[in-house]
Specification:
This protein has 463 residues and is of the alpha+beta class. It is built from eight helices and 19 strands. The protein has a 15-stranded mixed sheet that branches. A two-stranded antiparallel ribbon has the order 3-4. Strand 5 and strand 6 form a beta hairpin. InterPro entries: DUF1329, TAT_signal, TAT_signal_bac_arc. This is Secreted protein. Keywords: Signal.
């Protein structure tokens, strides 16, 4: 047992000082040197009370407990405001699990390896973009560009340059949109594809597209009234530029180009998810501004636990639900005490008619992935939550292995809750869809670019 050398408020004072000075992650020791030296164990970087929910709450909450309206006050300071409101007023239940101390469970192995290899090489150029070794025109070579980020712009860069932390990701997803009465009003099935052309883990530039960051598409396979609707975003590497956005609707039987600043609207009727929400990084970094770290400290989040993955437990990976008026509004979620989270705010400076006034993004410093994003409207009123769960695809019943033979890692499900209207869209990454599409995290020899990621592909998928 470790002898405690610090009083209970030492961490709180340390976090306040970091916000003021821009210091890096870790309380007892710098986090990323600790990761590099010990390979997996982060316990040397934080005092015991930041790695134990029981110690942090002085015995009020422990692993295995369930947070409800009856005990949520004990962890109010560990929840973002909408999550707290969901538990307090909407009957949401959150399961508590042990904090993870093994950083290798917070990444796919290739992305972590690339992050450690390239640490310190990312520089911000005079044009505001992230370049390798400060050489403008040399796109980022892969992994987290700023693993020890100390300002909001760097944290946003970590989220934006490679969303899914694979060179190619394909998500077969189910989207259930619930009305305020707690019933499912819409059920959509869709496929979301992401192909990074730069900032890749294999060290290459895809087919010479060095001026691009990614090709990203989404197409709907059910129900019949939206089946065939598809969208393609072509992201420029220059984060001052808006993506080129194309869409296909079966009723019009043609591909059309859309204004790319219309990123704060539902893709199809009924959903609360916007393109801008994706990965808390749905827009180019430099089309937002006034980045500012507003808080650092511990938080509850579903960032590493295999508990949230239903592989081997349910044929299509669908978890149970709870809360709301019919017990269907929230997926059963398992959260842990994250020892340190950066909360940064930003404003949509490139979108003069955006309905969003600002966003606040909560990011786990151990892997620089967001746990939740809360947006505020232009009046400053709290509006919408985009909360996600992540983890390795491995539990006691099943596992999904990457090409290196190690468990793969991805998102599992998301809550997109419009707290003003009371509408909720639950996004679930499924094993496969009735249409035959499946989730996968590599190209697997398939020509995904021509099949899913060109304007002509949008037309073909629509018909």
């Amino acid at each position: 047992m470790r002898i405690r050398k610090y009083d209970f408020n030492f961490s709180r004072r340390s976090f306040m000082e970091k916000v003021a000075t821009g210091a890096g992650a870790g309380v007892l020791a710098p986090l990323w040197p600790t990761i590099a030296n010990s390979a997996d164990d982060i316990s040397k970087a934080y005092p015991d009370e930041l790695l134990s929910i029981e110690m942090y709450t002085k015995g009020k909450i422990k692993p295995g407990d369930v947070i409800t309206a009856a005990n949520v006050e004990a962890v109010k300071d560990l929840l973002e405001p909408i999550a707290y409101q969901q538990v307090k007023e909407h009957g949401r239940r959150i399961n508590i699990v042990q904090s993870n101390k093994d950083v290798t469970k917070l990444f796919n192995a290739t992305y972590l390896k690339k992050t450690l290899e390239n640490k310190g090489r990312a520089k911000i150029g005079a044009d505001g973009n992230v370049w390798t070794d400060g050489k403008e025109g040399s796109p980022w070579v892969g992994g987290l560009p700023f693993p020890d980020a100390n300002d909001g712009f760097q944290v946003q860069s970590n989220l934006t340059l490679n969303w899914g932390r694979h060179d190619y990701s394909q998500y077969a997803a189910q989207a259930d949109s619930l009305s305020p009465d707690g019933e499912v009003g819409y059920r959509h099935e869709l496929v979301w594809c992401e192909l990074n052309t730069t900032a890749r883990t294999d060290g290459t530039v895809f087919q010479g597209h060095s001026d691009k960051l990614r090709f990203q598409s989404v197409f709907f396979t059910a129900p019949n009234d939206t089946k065939g609707s598809s969208f393609l975003s072509i992201w420029h590497y220059d984060q001052r530029k808006f993506p080129d956005l194309y869409g296909y609707f079966p009723a019009f039987k043609r591909v059309r180009q859309f204004p790319t600043n219309q990123r704060f609207e539902p893709l199809v009727p009924g959903v609360t998810f916007f393109l801008s929400d994706a990965w808390a990084a749905g827009d180019p970094i430099l089309t937002w501004g006034n980045y500012k770290v507003v808080k650092r400290g511990p938080m509850l989040g579903a960032i590493s636990g295999h508990h949230n993955w239903m592989g081997g437990k349910h044929a299509t990976w669908v978890p149970n639900t709870n809360g709301g008026k019919k017990g269907k509004t929230f997926y059963d979620t398992y959260m842990e005490l994250i020892p340190e989270v950066i909360v940064f705010s930003a404003e949509p400076t490139g979108y003069p008619r955006a309905p969003v006034g600002r966003k606040e993004v909560y990011v786990d410093v151990r892997n620089m992935m967001f746990t939740s994003q809360v947006t505020y409207d232009r009046r400053g009123q709290i509006w919408k939550q985009f909360e996600a769960t992540f983890g390795q695809l491995k539990n006691d019943k099943a596992e999904v292995l990457a090409a290196d033979g190690k468990p793969d890692w991805t998102w599992m499900f998301c809550h997109t809750h419009d707290i003003q209207s009371g509408r909720m869209t639950r996004l679930l990454q499924a094993k496969n869809l009735a249409s035959g599409y499946k989730s996968k995290y590599a190209m697997e020899g398939e020509d995904v670019y021509n099949k899913y990621l060109t304007p002509s592909a949008m037309s073909r998928l629509g018909t």
